[in-house]
Write a structure and sequence with these properties.
heterodimer; A: about 260 residues; alpha/beta; 4-stranded antiparallel β-sheet; about 40% helix; about 25% strand; B: about 375 residues; Transcription Regulator spoIIAA; 4-stranded mixed β-sheet; about 70% helix
């Protein structure tokens, strides 16, 4: 339990990761570090390997070379017990929610608690209802099935499930994709609130420029199998590589930038 | 880390220790419920020994404090780490917000009678829906008949291959085995009477009239009917069917009619194939068990089995084909929701089409005996 008492400064350390799909090289030597209690965003064009890198961080896939260390644990050749212990310490919000269609929303949120703790059902339901409220959903949503929810509600319900076991680390895959601007702004606030409340470390993949400007502490740009640049959005906006420029030079990039400058 | 614990050294003192997290508070639920404070006590709770607190722990702690306060005691909590105090505050805030919201009313579980009623109503609704689906398909079919240009040949040919040609090995093998079994079972009886040659009558009539059509229809219901339901069901879940409608393609025309037409073509041919293999199986068994050679068997077969018997078997095929394709497609279209529903509808399609095939077969028997065929 020493690892818990004295947490490492870097929650995630990725070094020299190489991933190949057959002939195609997705990652060609990636180095990244995510600090404790920061909101870290991964961006990059389609096919730049963001999702693959995320899947490698959450033990759904193994890189061909290099090492990944999450919460102080090396992921390569990890034992089943260690993998389970690690999985209980993080939460994942999948792009399409990943809620189980045969369970109600409340049951979905309570599932990790039911599976991994000995709490009684009533208590689990109460805690799950609270998590739903925390994610900004009305209590009546709990009784509905995922197929009855709108896209924004699905994301929120899925976030509530990711938070069920009070993770130290939260992975968000496109948290605002497919949401209307109001819901997306709600997600911005929610992510900030969670970090401030629980000191969560948050790693997200996103294309949402507003989310990047307003929420992310640091952003890593992936391109051509490598990390093209890491830094705050303001720092990135000064950098030259074309893979980075595309996020700032398009009309949408400029609009998001101006918006933030008006605010300040 | 120690499990969560609560102690009451004196009537006015509570001491909270250990790790109050979701995984460690399971053992504390009973002790918590048994803690009592006399009304109007000014109690102190010491949280300095608390090592960890997560949302589940905070929730349990808040409920305890709330209950004690509701029972009339005053509890002052001290010594908590600042981040724990903040979390407890968040719980209190949430509970206060929820106080105004009416609790969800969960309906009482349904009684047996209610279940029965729901099931009956569902079945009735489903039968009506199936009828209207058959009607709609018939209209679409009629519309296509008048305009042959709208026939979609590619899906029809594709379905003939997947439901017909690809099913040849399994249909052939099973009907061969069925012929072997019928012949073998009959052999023991026929031998007793020295009526060995009548094995040709037995195998010929039973295979051609009953077994070949039935076994073929059941295999196709399990093989292709389920595939139809799963394919259309998945398309319904992923909004492909809605997309088809908005593009201006009638799903019935593209998804249902080709399957019906393909089965109408393929099933009779499969039954002929099953007839041949089934009789061949019987012949093989007759030779090895009853010493009835192939030549003898076929001589007797031609005399015993009329063309009518052959046609009686074949003429069931179109009815079975329509049942299997209609039920499969119908259950596919009724899918809504998620992956779960696809599985449920697929199961239903197989169960219902096999059920209806056997019912139809029974009705055929009644009809044929009334017609003296």
């Amino acid at each position: 339990m020493d690892t818990l008492a004295k947490p490492p400064e870097n929650v995630i350390e990725i070094s020299q990761v190489v991933t190949r799909f057959g002939e195609q090289v997705v990652h060609n030597g990636i180095d990244l570090a995510v600090h404790r209690a920061e909101i870290f965003a991964l961006i990059g064009g389609s096919g730049s390997g963001k999702s693959t890198l995320l899947r490698e961080m959450i033990l759904l896939q193994q890189p061909n070379e290099g090492s990944i260390r999450v919460l102080g644990v090396v992921l390569k050749d990890i034992s089943d017990d260690a993998a389970l212990a690690l999985r209980l310490r993080w939460g994942v919000l999948f792009q399409h929610g990943g809620l189980f269609g045969s369970l109600t929303v409340l049951e979905n949120v309570g599932l990790p608690l039911r599976e991994h703790t000995q709490l009684n059902d009533k208590l689990i339901d109460e805690i799950a209802a609270w998590k739903l409220a925390m994610a900004g959903l009305a209590p009546k949503v709990g009784a509905q099935y995922p197929s009855e929810l709108s896209g924004g509600m699905l994301k929120r319900a899925s976030l509530a499930r990711a938070l069920a076991l009070d993770p130290e680390l939260l992975f968000l895959d496109e948290p605002t994709a497919g949401l209307d601007p109001t819901s997306a702004a709600g997600v911005d606030e929610l992510v900030l609130k969670l970090r401030d409340l629980f000191g969560l470390t948050i790693v997200m993949i996103t294309h949402d420029l507003d989310l990047l400007w307003q929420v992310a502490d640091r952003v890593a740009v992936l391109g051509e199998g490598r990390v093209q640049g890491v830094g705050s959005m303001t720092e990135l906006s000064q950098m030259k590589p074309p893979a980075i420029r595309q996020f700032f030079d398009g009309p949408r990039g400029r609009a998001a930038h101006e918006q933030i400058e008006h605010k300040n | 880390m120690q499990a969560a614990a609560i102690a009451q050294p004196s009537p006015e003192e509570l001491v909270l220790t250990g790790s109050w997290t979701a995984r460690d508070i399971a053992g504390i639920q009973h002790p918590l419920a048994s803690i009592r404070l006399a009304p109007h006590t000014q109690a102190r709770a010491d949280g300095a020994g608390m090592e960890a607190l997560d949302t589940a722990g905070a929730w349990v702690l808040h409920k305890l404090l709330q209950r004690l306060r509701a029972e009339g005691a005053t509890v002052a909590l001290s010594g908590l780490r600042p981040e724990f105090a903040k979390l407890l505050e968040v719980v209190a805030q949430h509970v206060a917000e929820q106080a105004g919201v009416p609790a969800l009313i969960t309906p009482p579980p349904a009684t047996v009678l209610e279940h029965l009623g729901h099931r009956a109503a569902d079945s009735w609704e489903q039968s009506l829906a199936l009828l209207s689906f058959i009607g709609e398909s018939a209209i679409a079919f009629a519309a296509c008949l008048t305009r042959p240009a709208r026939w979609r040949w590619r899906p029809i040919l594709f379905n003939i291959r997947s439901a017909g040609i690809n099913a040849l090995p399994i249909v052939g093998l099973l009907s061969f085995l069925l012929g072997v079994v019928v012949s073998y079972q009959g052999a023991a009886q026929l031998r007793q009477y020295g009526a060995n040659i009548f094995v040709a009558d037995l195998v010929g009539l039973s295979m051609l009239r009953e077994f070949a059509p039935l076994i073929t229809a059941i295999i196709i219901a399990g093989r292709s009917g389920s595939a139809y339901a799963a394919q259309i069901g998945t398309m319904a879940v992923t909004e492909e069917i809605d997309a088809m409608r908005t593009i201006g393609i009638a799903p019935l025309e593209l998804l249902v009619l080709p399957k019906v037409i393909a089965l109408l073509v393929a099933l009779p041919l499969l039954i002929v194939f099953a007839d041949v293999l089934g009789v061949f199986g019987g012949m093989v068994m007759a030779r090895s068990q009853l010493d009835v050679g192939f030549g003898e068997f076929l001589d007797r077969f031609i005399k015993a089995v009329s063309v009518t018997s052959y046609l009686v078997g074949i003429c069931k095929a179109p009815v079975f084909a329509v049942i299997i394709s209609m039920v499969g497609c119908f259950q596919g279209f009724r899918t809504h929701g998620g992956a779960d529903s696809v599985g449920r509808q697929t199961t239903r399609s197989v169960v219902q089409s096999i059920f209806l095939v056997i019912v139809a077969d029974a009705l055929f028997s009644v009809a044929f005996s009334a017609l003296d065929l």
